[in-house]
Amino acid sequence: MNISRNEQRALHVLALGGCILHERDNGPKITSVTCITREGMILADFDLSVFTRLRRKRLIASRWGCPYRISKRGLASVRAQLDNQGSVTC
Q1: How confident is the model at residue 83 (pLDDT cuts 50, 70, 90)?
Q2: What is the rounded distance in angstroms from the CA atom of residue 67 to the CA atom of residue 40?
Q3: pTM for the whole thing?
């Protein structure tokens, strides 16, 4: 699967325990997203287009209204790094 550099960065952050906070308008459409690391810092290169690509590829998921986190498919497709030992929890 082809994953861009910005998508790969976001997946690394999520694999290490980060999350994606999303905001909606009055309807079901998501209007803004913010990728936050486990230390509380914000990923600068993350925007709505990267979010929709990750969600379309099913690399991230939200369960029971929680913030978006990396899915098992996302953990399998993220490139191997020594510090990518995250878990999928909500």
Answers
A1: low
A2: 14
A3: 0.81
